[in-house]
């Protein structure tokens, strides 16, 4: 029995198992938790969160943290929206509006990541401080920027060609899902097969040993931050498309969900350990918990409290799991 | 099982009977018994993985024995943690010292029991603390201002501080775990003198070391472990090193050093160092290592030997000079540029900057090679081919592991860990190999294998530069020895037979003059 428990807890799929237990436990109380509608809702909620969590994974793998992802998404959202909005945007009504806006999202993201990465990798500043500062600076900048181009608190009247990303799809598969799947596959490919993937794990595990072994440590750290911001801007595209407005408070609440999902998935905050599949499980679990609580009809505050508790339990389980693994390795 | 009354050694300060320890059903320590009298010293020796440290950790309360009893001063001793061990009068000097770099020497010495101004208030009486620290430092023979921050002290001095700390409370037994690994020859001598003085004061010591000559010199009795079992518990009178090795290995050790064929003629230089300087660290280094040549650097710690290795490999900067491999100067001073020039460096600190301890053996072995086989960071690494090569190297080096693909390097013994670091570089077939303390903290069996590997590499045409604290190693494997002191090369000796005294004198001379 103990051995079975140990095997279950040390399995990679323990989070998936917990998700199933949660759903089964909720089933008698809220039967609609097992339905196609719920599944679709959960998948929709998951998508931008997963993209952000994958970006965060690159940085957490090198034992860093990126606190600036939500304001990176926000600044991308308002700058891109200001270019394509029908209310006096530079590309208003133009056929180029959509591609230019997409490019803007990505360029803004890469710029923020480059700046964060420069401070961490070249100036040797701690990631926490660097990204905290960019978070504050960029969210302020986004609000100020919105006020200069719009009379309202957000930038609406976006072209249909863009907003379709949030709603439409090909053959019933939403664009957002395709975008998300592409990011997940790309990230999986980078981590699993490429030299950069090998380097990211090496830098996260022991940066000194990595340097002595010829890993360009500062370049790897830099790239991790760029990848994180790049993912943030893709999430911004999905969010902005869904909301049909560019807003400076985009995704403000999701930051802790992102960190929570990454930790629940089992990516180590100390670096060097984690997989994309784990992150997907973590995001799935958190989204399912969220949906279940919504169905129960509890208040938003209760949802936060429960989520906090769940993340805590996940962290405790993770510590326990590590201890079991260390024990069995002896 | 408990002591029968006639088994109790009434004069012993520590008596250990039939100590056993199992981890998850596997017995790693299989019945160790000894008794230690005041003022006596017990050597604890065995290969890596023979459970020396497990035994010491049980005595120190870090681990609980599965079976067996311990007595301190005829009282049952069953510690629940290192705190109990300390209270019972046991001091443990670990390989890695437990000191705080940000505190002063006096504060470090007094950590176990700060003198208070008023008994129950947390305020520390600084004056009394410093006085006491001065007394303790005098006892261990360290002449230094007690207000000096610990970070300014050399490794050997720190160890003396650690010993002073152990003496700050009423200590009856001091356990030394590999105390000389990071000491220079002179510091080690000073430590041995101190241990002798402690013995005279009636303090009993347990001395764990791979350096058998030291054990022979210091200890009165020796316990020899093999695979966790005690194979011998004898007096050191009339004991020889070769007998100890045989007893540890369970077989006679073929010559520790590989056989050498005398070198003929002068080899073409492969590694050339010209005028390499970094103020305060190394000064105007000029030397060459030829094809197939093994050159040793004989220097004390602080002579700039490890710093030189790091500079050569581009890890640390140099203001002047150049390094050339096979005639072409290495342009950029970075590890990557050096690797591109087919150089390799096995660092002194394999945990710190040699290995990724939690990562698998294969991940460690393939790390350096991976960048050679693909053009850019986003290229797919041909993992399969790389791992096949790595497995081949692992077999050639006889790395003892049950699963190269899953087992973390952390779970390997020191000798096998070192083989992984070596394997990482051998995979790239380097032309120039710099080895900084290649056999530190590893057992004799693994040492012999590593020497043999170095020899093979040189035979295949590599230029090898070896740095070692144990000069015996250099005498055993080098074709040439450069003596280094105060960042300079002060003398050169040609082998294969060396004038030992001359080499040692050369390595120590300027340092002795300077201090």
Mean pLDDT of chain B: 86
> What top-tier CATH class of chain A fits best?
Mainly Alpha
* Terminal Cα span of chain B: 56 Å
How would you write the strand order of the largest sheet of chain A?
1-2
pLDDT average of chain A, as an integer? Answer: 89
Distance between the termini of chain A: 20 Å
Describe the main β-sheet of chain A briefly.
Answer: 2 strands, antiparallel
CATH architecture of chain A: Orthogonal Bundle
Overall outline of chain A: globular
**CATH class of the domain at 269-342 and 430-514 in chain B, anyone?**
Alpha Beta
Q: What's the number of extended β-strand segments of chain B?
A: 20
Work out the largest interface and the residue count of each chain: A-B, 30 and 35 residues
Q: Describe the largest sheet of chain B.
A: 6 strands, mixed
Widest sheet of chain B: strand order?
A: 6-7-8-3-9-10
Q: What is the fold-level CATH name, i.e. the topology of the domain at 269-342 and 430-514 in chain B?
A: Rossmann fold
Question: What does the overall shape of chain B look like?
Answer: globular
What's this entry about, in short?
Chain A has 330 residues and is an all-alpha fold. Chain A has 14 helices and 2 strands; from the N terminus they run αααααααββααααααα.
Could you characterize what this model shows?
The complex is a heterodimer of chains A (330) and B (515). Chain A is mainly α. Chain A has a single domain, classed as ABC transporter involved in vitamin B12 uptake, BtuC. Chain A is built from 14 helices and two strands. A two-stranded antiparallel ribbon of chain A has the order 1-2. In chain A, strand 1 and strand 2 form a beta hairpin. In chain A, helix 5 (97-122) packs antiparallel against helix 11. Chain A starts with a helix and ends with a helix. With 515 residues, chain B is α/β, with parallel strands linked by helices. Among the domains of chain B are: 1-89 and 212-250, P-loop containing nucleotide triphosphate hydrolases (Rossmann fold, 3-Layer(aba) Sandwich), CATH 3.40.50; 269-342 and 430-514, Rossmann fold (3-Layer(aba) Sandwich), CATH 3.40.50; 359-429, no CATH class. Chain B is 34% helix and 23% strand. In chain B, helix 12 (361-373) packs across helix 13 (383-396) and helix 12 packs parallel to helix 14 (414-426). The interface between A and B is medium-sized, with 30 and 35 residues.
């Amino acid at each position: 029995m103990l051995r079975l428990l140990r095997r279950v807890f040390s399995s990679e799929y323990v989070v998936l198992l917990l998700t199933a237990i949660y759903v089964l436990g909720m089933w008698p109380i809220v039967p609609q938790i097992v339905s196609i509608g719920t599944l679709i809702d959960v998948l929709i909620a998951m998508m931008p969160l997963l993209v952000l969590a994958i970006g965060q994974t690159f940085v957490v793998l090198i034992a860093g943290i990126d606190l600036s992802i939500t304001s990176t998404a926000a600044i991308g959202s308002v700058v891109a929206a200001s270019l394509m909005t029908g209310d006096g945007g530079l590309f208003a009504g133009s056929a180029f509006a959509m591609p230019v806006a997409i490019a803007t999202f990505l360029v803004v993201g890469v710029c923020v990541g480059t700046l964060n990465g420069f401070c961490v990798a070249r100036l040797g500043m701690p990631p926490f401080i660097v990204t905290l500062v960019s978070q504050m600076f960029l969210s302020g900048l986004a609000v100020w920027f919105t006020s200069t181009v719009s009379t309202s608190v957000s930038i609406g009247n976006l072209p249909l060609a863009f907003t379709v990303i949030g709603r439409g799809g090909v053959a019933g598969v939403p664009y957002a899902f395709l975008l998300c799947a592409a990011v997940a596959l790309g990230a999986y490919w980078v981590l699993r097969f490429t030299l950069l993937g090998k380097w990211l794990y090496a830098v996260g595990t022991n940066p000194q040993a990595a340097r002595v072994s010829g890993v360009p440590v500062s370049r790897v750290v830099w790239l991790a931050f760029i990848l994180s911001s790049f993912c943030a801007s893709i999430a911004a595209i999905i969010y902005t498309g869904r909301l049909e407005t560019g807003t400076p408070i985009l995704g403000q609440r999701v930051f802790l969900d992102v960190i929570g999902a990454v930790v629940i998935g089992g990516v180590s905050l100390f670096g060097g350990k984690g997989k994309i599949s784990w992150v997907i499980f973590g995001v799935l679990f958190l989204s399912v918990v969220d949906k279940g609580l919504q169905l129960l009809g509890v208040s938003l505050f209760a949802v936060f409290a429960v989520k906090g508790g769940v993340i805590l339990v996940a962290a405790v389980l993770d510590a326990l799991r590590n201890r079991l693994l260390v024990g069995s390795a002896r | 099982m408990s002591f029968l009354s006639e088994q109790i050694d009434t004069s012993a300060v520590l008596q250990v009977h039939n100590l056993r320890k199992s981890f998850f059903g596997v017995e790693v320590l299989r019945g160790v018994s000894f008794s230690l009298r005041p003022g006596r010293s017990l050597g604890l020796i065995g290969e890596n993985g023979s459970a020396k440290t497990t035994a010491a950790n049980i005595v120190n309360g870090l681990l609980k024995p599965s079976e067996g009893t311990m007595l301190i001063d005829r009282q049952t001793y069953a510690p629940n943690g290192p705190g109990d061990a300390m209270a019972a009068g046991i001091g443990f000097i670990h390989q890695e010292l437990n000191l705080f770099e940000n505190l002063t020497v006096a504060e470090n010495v007094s950590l176990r029991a700060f003198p208070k101004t008023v008994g129950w208030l947390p305020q520390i009486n600084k004056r009394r603390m410093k006085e006491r620290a001065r007394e303790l430092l005098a006892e261990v023979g360290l002449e230094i201002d007690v207000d000096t921050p610990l970070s300014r002290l050399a490794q050997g001095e720190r160890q003396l501080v650690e010993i002073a700390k152990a003496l700050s409370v009423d200590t009856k037994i001091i356990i030394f775990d590999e105390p000389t690994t990071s000491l220079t020859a002179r510091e080690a001598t000073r430590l041995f003198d101190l241990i002798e003085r402690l013995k005279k004061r009636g303090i009993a010591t347990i001395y764990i070391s791979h350096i058998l000559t030291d054990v022979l010199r210091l200890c009165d009795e020796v316990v020899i472990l093999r695979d966790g079992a005690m194979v011998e518990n004898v007096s050191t009178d009339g004991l020889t090193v070769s007998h100890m090795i045989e007893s540890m290995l369970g077989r006679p050790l073929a010559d520790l050093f590989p056989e050498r064929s005398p070198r003929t003629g002068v080899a073409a230089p492969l590694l050339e160092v010209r005028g390499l300087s970094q103020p305060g660290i190394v000064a105007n280094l000029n030397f060459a290592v030829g094809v197939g040549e093994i050159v040793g650097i004989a220097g004390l710690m602080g002579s700039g030997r490890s710093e030189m290795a790091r500079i050569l490999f581009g890890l640390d900067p140099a203001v002047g000079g150049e390094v050339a491999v096979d005639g072409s100067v290495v342009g950029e001073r970075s590890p990557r540029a050096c690797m591109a020039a087919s150089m390799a460096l096995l660092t002194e600190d394999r945990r710190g900057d040699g290995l990724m301890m939690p990562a698998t053996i294969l991940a460690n072995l393939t790390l350096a090679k991976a960048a050679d086989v693909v053009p850019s960071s986003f290229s797919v690494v041909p993992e399969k081919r790389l791992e096949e090569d790595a497995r081949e190297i692992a077999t050639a080096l006889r790395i003892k592991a049950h699963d190269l693909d899953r087992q973390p390097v952390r779970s390997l013994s020191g000798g096998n860990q070192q083989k992984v670091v070596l394997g990482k570089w051998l995979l790239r077939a380097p032309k120039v190999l710099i080895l900084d303390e290649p056999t530190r903290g590893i057992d004799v069996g693994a040492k012999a294998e590593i020497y043999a590997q170095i020899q093979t590499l040189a035979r295949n045409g590599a230029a090898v530069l070896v740095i070692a604290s144990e000069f015996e190693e250099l005498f055993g494997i080098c074709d040439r020895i450069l003596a280094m002191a105060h960042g300079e090369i002060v003398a050169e000796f040609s082998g294969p037979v060396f004038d030992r005294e001359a080499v040692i004198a050369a390595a120590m001379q300027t340092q002795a003059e300077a201090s």
